[in-house]
Structures are given as structure tokens and as C-alpha cells.
Amino acid sequence: MSLYPMMNLRASRHPSISYRPIRPSDLEVLVKIHGDLFPIRYELEFFHSVVHGRDIVSWGAVDRNSPNGEDDELIGFVTARIVMAKESEIEDMLSCDKSRSDQSLVYILTLGVVESYRNLGIATSLIREVIKYASDMPNCRAIYLHVISYNNSAIHLYQKMSFLCVRRLHAFYYIDGQHYDAYLFSYYVNGGRSPCSPLELVTLIMTYMRKGLKLVFSRVSKNSEKNGSKRVKYRDKSCLLPMTQSKRSITIEGPESDHV
User: Fold this and answer.
1) What values do phi and psi take at 119, rounded to 5?
2) What is the DSSP letter of 169?
3) Does residue 33 contact residue 7 with C-beta atoms inside 8 Å?
4) pLDDT for 223-242, tens place per residue?
């Protein structure tokens, strides 16, 4: 889930932002930041998995110029998990070798930046850390995540960073007795891509339309020639009816068979 934490940390006048892995000493601050912001409550086990790197990778942002000796305290973070492509919900949105069982994805779990440090490009840099990490994994094909439908700032951020919105999930979140939709975003790496890009989809549709029109024209021409040469022989309407049905069936089934 992608949101930006509300926390009473004051940004220094000249922040010097650096990035590092999240570690056990960050546990208390990490729990507080999540609790201050996210409407979803995470179990303590999740935070222990983050700080100890158990099946979760993470990056933290700190301000080296932060006052009051807080120059190593988290002011932003991103957490993610590696999942197998065949076990993910976006397997059908990947164009890759389905026979390979080692294809993997990176799923972004949480992303946040302290309010006083927003608009400094920290969230963008954290996402770039994830992209670099995924790109360095030869078998990784994509990064994906969920964004709650009303989080316009997060949606804009991912769109700006070339993430693709591939699906809208109805009633994905249940918060305080109310359902909310979510958007599923993905970013393809290492040759991974959606089964059909928008341009490829338009090209495909145009190709099948042309094939369909050619097939119809060909059938109509053949039927016209046949009817013309045997006009006297086939005046009975009962003989023409099966011919019309056959033409309609071919016109529909031809392009569909090519498409499959």
C-alpha cells in the first residue's frame, strides 16, 4: 500500500538525504510511522521481518543534516517482497516463458515519507532503489503494487515513473467497515512486458478487421458468382437459406480462430 506518513519530524533547512537498508535499530520508528499513517494495522511480525530481512527487502531514507542527533532516523521507507510469477495475481499480465518456473516479481508492500520531507524526491528515489534491485535480478520480470483508489498523489507518482495501471480491483480494501477499490500498477524489467501493449493491441485489432473484411468480401464474391451462374437452377429460397447461414458462420469464426 502506498501512502505518505504523518509524523512530527522537522526537516532540516538543508537536508542531506541518503539511503540505506532498514535494520533492527529502526524497529520502533518504523512501527510508529506505519501506525501514524496507514489505516491498515500491521502485525509486529511484519516489522520484525522487515528489520531482519526475512523474506522482505527494504530501503530507508535518512537526513544526515537532521538536528537533535537524529541524522540516522528514518524519514522515509519502502518495503517489498519477492514472489514467484506463477503464484502472483499478475501472471496473466506478463508476456514471458510460461514453462520457466524461476520467473520472479517484486511486490511493493509499503512506501512512505514523513510529511515535512515531502516534495524532495524521496519517494521517487526509494522506488528507483526497488527498480534497480529488480533489474539486477536476471529472472525478475516486473514490479507491482496496489494503490487505494482515492490516493491521487501516489497514483500520479507511479504514472510519472512509467508504471502501468493494469487493473482496477473492486472492494479490494476493507477499512473501518467500508470497502475501497484499488488500482494494480506494474513496471516491467528485464524484457518482461504485458501480453499486448496499447499499440500492439490496436495493430492486432486492425489486422483482424482487415482479415475479416477480406474474408467477407471473398465469400460474397464467390457466392455472387455461384448464384449468377446458377440463377435458374437455384431459385428455390429453401436452397439459399443454408448458404446464408454458412457465410455468417465463417465470417465470425474465421478471425476468432486466428486470434486464439
Assistant:
1) 65, 25
2) E
3) yes
4) 666 555 555 443 443 333 33
Could you give the CA distance from residue 121 to residue 70 in angstroms, rounded to a whole number? Answer: 20
C-beta separation of 142 from 190 below 8 A: no
Q: How many CB atoms lie within 10 A of CB 138?
A: 9
> Strands 104-113 and 57-63: what pairing?
unpaired
In this prediction the pTM is: 0.70
C-alpha cell recorded at residue 42: 500491521
Instruction: Indicate the pLDDT class of residue 175, thresholds 50, 70 and 90.
Output: very high
- Burial class of residue 206, CB neighbours in 10 A (0-12, 13-18, 19+): exposed
Query: In terms of Cα–Cα distance, which of 124, 112, 128 is closest to 50?
Result: 112
- Say which DSSP state 151 is in: -
Structure confidence at residue 89 (pLDDT): 79
> How many C-beta atoms surround the C-beta of residue 246 within 10 A?
12
Q: Which cell goes with 182?
A: 484499488
> How far lies 259's CA from each of 76, 149, 182, 196, 252, in Å?
47, 33, 31, 13, 11
Q: Cell 436452397, residue?
A: 239
H/E element holding 126? helix 122-135
- Checking if the pLDDT of 247 tops 60, the result is no
Strand partners, 179: 174
